[in-house]
User: Fold this.
Amino acid sequence: MSKKILLTILCAIFTGTLLLHAQQVEILNESLLTSESFNRFTVVNRTGFQVWNLSTSYGAMISGFSGGQSYDNEDWLLTPELNLSGMNNVKLSFDHARGNAGAMNVGIAEGWYKVYATANYTGDVTTTTWIEIGGVNHTSQAWNYVSSGELEIPAAAKSAVTRIAFRYISRNMESATWEIKNMMVWAGTSSPPIGQTETFKITTWNSEWLGCTQNGPTDEDLQIYNIADAIRKMNPDIIAIQEVTQSSAFQSVNTLLSLLGDEWGGNIVPYSTSDCSQNQGIIYKKSRVQFVNSSLMSNGSFAQGGSYSYNWSNGRYPALYNVKLLSGNNAFPVSLINIHAKASSDDVSYTRRKGGAEGLKTILDGSAYNTKNVIIIGDFNDYLVGSQSLSTVSPYNNFITDANNYKGITKDITGYHYGTRIVDNMIISNELFGNYVSNSAHEETILPQSDYSFYYTTSDHIPVSASFNIPTSSTGIKNIIYTDTENLLKIYPNPAKDQIIIESGDLIIENEAIRILDISGRQVATAKLLNDKTMNVSTLSEGIYFVAVETTKGIVTQKFVKK
Assistant:
């Protein structure tokens, strides 16, 4: 793993609120993936009981489908007031998706999914004069996010109090889900701001003896039906599952896929094909995830507790799934390591878990994995802080204390059912620190809350999910853009003519080459800092640029204007 970079927060710089000749001015930039962002918008319900709501994985979303049927709905989502007075060439873009596969195209001809703008919102969508914004690109695959394209705001809709609105309609005979995120409004001739990403939801779930005729829930058919239904409700892009039987009599993964439908794929590499075997598999959304290959990580070294095989519950090896997350034109590689550690709270079991963690970390610290995007996911059968055994130290403490290279993103979650820390966990490598959506890791408590029989008919584990922002382009920036809202970097003078000074306090820069990007995110220059803080920009043309510095959060960028 690469060395961790520490940054000291100093102050903010150019905010993009001043029009500079024909250059870009950012007017609105909302992810719609946080409550802070979503709450800036106004939700208006005209018909029906469904309304626009927040998903931290998929943005603002609405569906007219509930409880197995569709309903009549008309709902609006309005931006805050935007001052577009006197601005030319004002553009709008957003990412959006619809689903499911059977309903994603309903209402297109009827205009159920429209975007409008108005120069004067009266406070009532029915009495406001709205102007439709046409030319919106629509998705051709269920749940596949596409860009709306660059949409021109009509001149008649521009004022000091302009509002943009999304209108959703459904009918009681049919309905689709509409999801919207990454909304941007800007003025000028340039492309939208850099750093476009798509958000992916990754989930882990111990399905409790799925397919086993001797253990777990007694009604196998009901259990697997409930699990398929839960996957639809959670709507992950990838779900790693544990305790999965894959025998000749019960092909759990194949059965799940038959229930979920053609838009889903899956894979399993069983270490055992006997009845009640405990394998680890994955289910994934084919439009969002490309499966590459899979294998059992069976070649580990002796560690505390005994042999590598013994420590992993006599051969229940970590299952490696290499996949690519399909974000825009970027196929982003991830090595998903699905584990099911030794259970029980006795000292011997604790030592075996610890030995398994030591053996696995030795593999991951080696040259084969130390630059890969790694997610260790699954049933750890213990906490990441403390332990369910008598020990006060987690058996995975070797990962947690190596904070330069690994982060336990689920370590502080308190479980809904038992009130202790959770045993279903995720650890990410530092290559993904910048991609992880902060504080997005959570238990899917909606499942037991909505089904009182959940623990008896479905599973004794609650799924755990986390979100990751993945860049939509693999060119230019190699990792996610991290918007410097916390003011980590100070650049001046701004605007600049010949040079800029980068103040970074205690910043430790691993790569001395600082990159300069144009407004579209294309790298136009690299340079080394002179005297540790000065960069020559005299050869750049006039315009807006970004300085990009590699950090553990991805790429920290700050704007500056070259005059």
Summary: The helical segments are 35-38, 220-234, 252-260, 308-311, 347-364, 397-400, 446-450, 454-457. The chain has a mean pLDDT of 84.
